[in-house]
Design brief:
Strand content: under 5%
Number of strands: 0
Structural class: mainly alpha
Distance between the termini: 141 Å
Length: 96
Amino acid sequence: IDDLTKTLGDKDVLVKQLAEKDVIITDLAKTLEDKEALVQQLADKETLVRQLADKDVVITDLTKTLEDKEALVKQLADKEVVIGDLTKQLDEKSAV
């Protein structure tokens, strides 16, 4: 009977150890899930950074287009001045 009692006591200790190991395994699983969530967040942030870079390229292209259009407007204004001068000269010659 003493041997059986000792064996049962040993089994109780083993059951307790198994329960503690189960808790540790659960904690590790939770930690792993947290790390996977962090990896996903990092991937999401990388995607956002890439999208921002793409938008920056678009903004740069739009700025260049706008500068080109401003240059054209300036050229048109210069041509209007020249046309105005020519018209004035023609008017003066017509008056003579």
